[in-house]
Amino acid sequence: MSTQNPTPKAAKNSYDPATLEARIQARWAEAGAGTPHEQTAKPGARGSEPFAILMPPPNITGSLHLGHLLFLSLEDAMIRHARLSGLDATWLPGTDHASIGASYMLERTLAAEGTSAQALGREGYLARMRDFAATNQERIRGQIRGFGALADWSRETFTLGPRYTKASRAAFSILYERGLLERRETQITYCPHCATGLSDLELEMRDGGSSICGRCGTMTECRTGRGWFARMAPLAQALIAKLDAGALKIIPASAEATLRHWLDNITDWNLSRQLWWGQAIPAWTCRAGHISTPQAPDYGDPEACAICADSEISPDPDTLDTWFSSGLSPFAALGWPDITGASGADYRRFYPTATLETGHDILFFWCARMLMLGLALTGELPFKTLYLHGLLRDESGKKMAKTAGNGQDPSTLLSSYGADALRWALIEGHAPGLDARWQPDKLEASRRLGNKLWQAGRFLTLRGIISGAAQSEAFDPQALSAPESELLSRHAQAARQIRALMDAHRLHEAASALREAFWHLFCDQHLELIKGLGPAATNEPATPLGASYAALRASWRGYLALFAPFWPHLTEELWSQIDGGASGLLIEAGYGL
Q1: β pairing state of 436-437 and 392-393
Q2: Which CATH class is domain 178-322?
């Protein structure tokens, strides 16, 4: 399908994101811009090697808040940079069923209605939960799409969907057969409000050695119970060996010491949850007490005991800790355990993934478990780089959370400032690993930068430099003045620096360097130099005047590409004004242009 725009009219005086973001998103959707192509290498690119990022699946406990938009901003910038660099890039979206969190939220709703899970019964409760999940999934998808995130929706997953169910069954069975899972009766920490056992990571310690459930704040109890436990020490030792070999890059580097300390002191993981909503523990017990688990290749329910052939086998009544299934995400989302044939194509193409970006607060809950499970089940670390962003806190310094009720709804900010300005405000100055309080005044600075870009494009359009029969890209550098030649050299140097920072995932530094170069080098110096020249000549051979315009035009195209990971809507609109949109989509053009 054609993505070419008609010759643009003169740009409006000021940048109005409300009028263009939905239109730009429709163009991306029409072109399938979020779906990777087998061959995406561009001239000057690093090649078409695969580059996959797993989107941390938002919990289906409600809508996204401002903190979620931080990771969407960072990851969208990473994936767009990869696409512009010519990589075979995909960003894998999905949602998490969040057993305890979703149960807690739904039960609050039921209580307000004067009913309860017990009153509904298991099947009635699960039907209500499925409706609750579907409603929130649709809302979350809409928010992500409305933010302009370049996610690959053809590969969307759900941690309680069929793909994860098969992966959870396979993982459980494999680990059990290796002696890494065992069912035992022991002392467990129990939350009377959530009515389930908990793992150590789900507790918040209080004075005097007492603890509360981190989800609901209820004082926990110590009870004797039977459950499934993962033996974590062997898994931790395997990961430590990989860290010793330098196989994983962690950003910030200081987080590695934190991870190592936790691994050195790791305890067994209680996997059993006494909840209805979740992945069922895939274990069956016969009358003799033998345990059977699903077997390859389908990992379906066993029909009889694998040891004594007893046909009377009882399923385990519990569900798996949500973090177990989500810990399989980098490979489950790509089709594991099916790794051969057509069903294994994505796994072979994109695994291991390139980068895992998430908040530092779930380093142990999720990241470490993904690393250990990936290594144990696939033989490889599931990602090559671990990027831990700092938390975005509310103005009082508290962590934003849906269940805490302080997660700021970004809809008002988006309608007032647009997605691009909000992205920039979230990324610039936010170093990895460091928490930051939300500062609304940063949005005004972002708006000014957006207007600066818009006005630059308007000037270039009105002068005929980028629209209609504008000057050819080819020009004689000898026809440029010494100041112009120096400016081109400095533009190229800035571009190399910014792309190197992006390659190193130093996005906050890349943003600052880009603002500095565009504002002071391109606008204050190059544009001002050009303003003294006359209108562009058209349909004529290159002249000294034509060379000046062509050089400026080439620099403008370069800056639009550099800004595209941060300001994707605005840059796509400005790009479409070049030669009436004859260059197609900016996201498909790449840095080589």
Answers
A1: parallel
A2: alpha beta
Cis preceding linkage at 337, omega within 30: yes
Q: What residue type is 11 in one-letter code?
A: A
Looking at domain 51-163+324-418+426-435, which of 3.40.50.970, 3.40.50.150, 3.40.50.620, 3.50.50.60 is its CATH number?
3.40.50.620
CA angle 556, 557, 560 (to 5 degrees): 85
Tens-digit pLDDT profile for residues 61-88: 999 999 899 999 999 999 999 999 999 9
Per-residue pLDDT, 534: 58
Sequence-distant (≥ 6) Cβ neighbours of residue 498 within 8 angstroms: 510, 513, 514, 517, 562
Decide: pTM greater than 0.70. yes
Q: Is 529:483 a contact under the CB 8 Å cutoff? A: yes
Contact predicate 453/567, CB 8 Å: yes
pLDDT value at residue 543: 46
Tokens 């086998």 -> residue:
313
Q: Domains of the chain: which residue ranges?
A: 1-31+419-425+436-593, 51-163+324-418+426-435, 178-322
- CATH architecture designation of domain 1-31+419-425+436-593: Orthogonal Bundle (1.10)
Is the fold of 51-163+324-418+426-435 the same as that of 178-322?
A: yes
Q: CA 119 to CA 351: how far, in whole Å?
A: 45
pLDDT tens track for 252-283: 999 999 999 999 999 999 999 999 999 999 99
Residues 6+ apart with CB under 8 A from 351: 52, 330, 331, 334, 336, 378, 380, 382
